[in-house]
Specification:
This protein is an alpha/beta fold. It folds into 2 domains: 1-53; 55-162, Rhodanese-like domain (Oxidized Rhodanese, domain 1). Helix content is 43%, strand content 9%. The chain has a 5-stranded parallel β-sheet. Strand 4 (118-121), helix 6 (126-137) and strand 5 form a beta-alpha-beta unit. Helix 1 (3-26) packs across helix 2 (36-50) and helix 1 crosses helix 6 (126-137).
């Protein structure tokens, strides 16, 4: 499989994931509940985001630097999508909290700026990356904090859920090369 085909497949998978996630957040039972024009609109928005070349992540160091450079005019809007209790234990200064399952509600979308970059973070970056994709598809300028709060602080009370190689890493077989392989 050539590079172009791998990129196209990756975009298709990412789009399907983003569409499914946005459908879930919007409270629609399934993609089949969408009209063709709604699906086509979402498809175009997803393709525009995925083909933009925009980096989906910002590092904790880069975010810290921009927040502390003495120029508040370039500060992003910071959105925590963690649970309220974790947010209350500790969060990035200036961040607002909207739990991830509530982000797509209109009253919460109305809180987000359309004219300013939004840095989205969670515990490890996984959930926030999904919310980031959704927000970009909806027309916001969002970016994910790579590795979430686990990259912002070492305090495990504030940032639980760290990757532990001994516990989390497996040694399952894998296939190298362009052939997808079989089980």
């Amino acid at each position: 499989m050539n590079k172009v085909m791998r990129i196209a497949r990756k975009r298709t998978v990412l789009f399907a994931f983003a569409l499914g996630f946005s459908v879930l957040l919007a409270g629609i039972a399934s993609a089949s509940d969408l009209t063709f024009s709604e699906f086509e609109l979402m498809s175009k928005a997803a393709d525009a985001y995925l083909s933009s070349g925009k980096s989906p992540n910002i590092t904790a160091q880069d975010l810290f630097n921009v927040l502390n450079d003495g120029d508040s005019s370039n500060d992003p809007f910071v959105l925590s999508v963690r649970g309220a209790s974790q947010y209350a234990k500790g969060h990035i200064a200036g961040a607002i909290n909207v739990p991830w399952r509530e982000v797509a509600k209109q009253e919460n979308l109305d809180k987000l700026p359309k004219d300013r970059q939004i840095v989205v973070y969670c515990y490890t970056g996984h959930t926030a990356s999904q919310v980031t994709a959704l927000l970009n598809i909806l027309g916001y300028d969002a970016i994910n904090l790579k590795f979430g709060m686990t990259s912002w602080t070492r305090d495990t009370d504030i940032a639980p859920g760290r990757y532990q190689e001994v516990k989390d890493a497996k040694d399952y077989p894998y296939v190298a090369g362009d052939d997808p392989g079989i089980w």
